[in-house]
Amino acid sequence: MKPVSGLSRRRFIGAVPVAAGVSALALERAAGQGGGAVFGKSGLRILSERPVNAETLVADLDPRYTSNDKHFVRNNGGLPERALSGSLEGWSLRIDGEVGNTLEFSLDDLQARFETVSRALVLECAGNGRAAFQPGASGNQWWLGAVGCARYTGVRLRDVLGAAGVRDTAVYVAYYGEDPHLSGNPDDVPISRGVPLSKAMDESTLLAWEMNGEPLPPHHGFPLRIVAPGFPASVSGKWLRRLWVRDQVHDGPKMMGYSYRVPRYPVAPGTDVPEEDMEIIGPMPVKSIITRPETGVRHAGGGPLAIRGWAWAGDGPVNAMHLSADFGTTWLPCQLEEPENPFAWQRFEGSVAFDIPGHYELWARATDHQGRQQPMVVPGWNPRGYLNNAMHRIAVTAL
Amino acid sequence: MKRLLLAGAIALLPVAAFANPEERGLPALAAVQESDGQALIDENCLYCHDDSYIRALHLPREEWEGVLDMMIGMGMPPLDPEVQEQILDYLEEEHGPRESSPSPGAGASADAETEDLPWAFPRYRPNPLFWRER
């Protein structure tokens, strides 16, 4: 699949009034006919246009904050009308279920009532790297770019839950968004997932209305989304309308069956795993990516080659970062910064010298706060191809 | 020898032209089957999503059957059994297992990625022990 550059924003915005009254889905379809344009996006690798699924090219992950036009998109349904119109008319967030008081907030209420915080947070699709599983797994064939780190601004979910008064019976917080199901049937819900109460109460889990200083872009959940970093990005519900505090593990669409679940024991590749042996994915494993240079680089001059990229983990910081240019025979430590805040990715920098000209592979390996390292091979085959945190490898020709 | 072959080719030409349905303004049989299958996909699948999910997969028939079952869970009305068979024939034919994957572990998209940059993707198989031809 080739990178497809998006329709220019100006041209697309120009097209919106003409299409006013047409469903958002139809608009998306029309946009797709331009050869893979996705509203507000450019230069992504488009995996599907309806629903929109697109990943960031590795080189575009180099900036500290993944830009709004480059951040990956994983949509399960269509785009709500509101996301394109930018209107807040009739919008509210309802919090109900196992709470003392059912509450309903406008965006202004949320902003006025709770402390506003900004955090750099990594979101990664649980299926990032799925394309590498053998035998293959159905679903979006993400390669490396279903991950990004943006600065989100919003309120802490726990402050909002606190205001509603979470009952002792609460165990899970589920979300419902405004995105229409692909079938067009208004009774169908494309996705409704959630997080265990402990993750909802984590001080880094936000209800965010801004991404990199701008209102949430259409594909990222305008006007409000959850950002629960470290967990599969599918728990970070977009286009939010309702939080349902539950007294059981949530059972909405894409919580059950094989969705976002892996076998609770290791299985041989290709195994038919019974549904009851699948368990919900929690924190994502340690991972890293080389963002400079790009794979295929031809390195002239004989001096050391500077390497840099990002490292992150789903339940704490990364403690060490290493590079190997000889298939893991020897490892060179890299410089690794402290995270800007919990769940922000961390810059690593290293350099590698090549004594003999020729073809090399560079491998990057992160080690998390508990000493767990990225595997060299694609780990733990599972039916839907989740959690591939194998080391990133790039090809280098030393001239 | 060359001359003989040439003569043979000339002799066969009118027959071949006659035998080829396309020469007579008829679509080839394979093309008819393909477009029927494609028409069924258009009609029964593509009102929900585009065909990228389908194109990305290369599965044996049983697994395609599993996908169709999964679609019922996604809101697709059950298919007429005859239509289902035709769709499965088409999927098996057009999106069956690939002969070989040049870069197992590198992923489906790696093949296309490397077309322009043949040296750009790491070539060493990460885990040949578990690789099996599909």
Question: Describe it for me?
Answer:
The complex is a heterodimer of chains A (399) and B (134). With 399 residues, chain A is mainly β. Chain A has two domains: 83-256, Oxidoreductase, molybdopterin-binding domain (Sulfite Oxidase, Chain A, domain 2, Alpha-Beta Complex); 287-398, Immunoglobulin-like (Sandwich), CATH 2.60.40.650. Helix content of chain A is 11%, strand content 31%. Chain A contains six helices and 24 strands. In chain A, the strands form six sheets. In chain A, strands 5-4-13-8-9 form a five-stranded mixed beta sheet. In chain A, a hairpin with a 7-residue loop joins strand 19 (318-324) and strand 20 (332-333). The longest helix of chain A is centred in the N-terminal third of the chain and has 10 residues, at 9-18. Chain A is globular. The model of chain A is unreliable at 1-35 (pLDDT under 50). Chain B is mostly helical and 134 residues long. Chain B has two domains: 2-97, no CATH class; 102-134, no CATH class. Chain B has helices at 2-19, 29-44, 52-55, 61-73, 81-95, 108-116. In chain B, helix 2 (29-44) packs across helix 5 and helix 4 (61-73) packs across helix 5 (81-95). The longest helix of chain B has 18 residues, at 2-19. Chain A binds chain B through residues 1-2, 32, 45, 47-51, 53, 129-132, 134-136, 138-141, 143, 181-185, 188, 257, 269-270, 294-296, 327, 359, 361, 376-378, 381, 390, 393-395, 397, and chain B through 47-50, 52-53, 56-59, 67, 73-76, 101, 104-110, 112-113, 117, 119-124, 126-127, 130-132, 134.
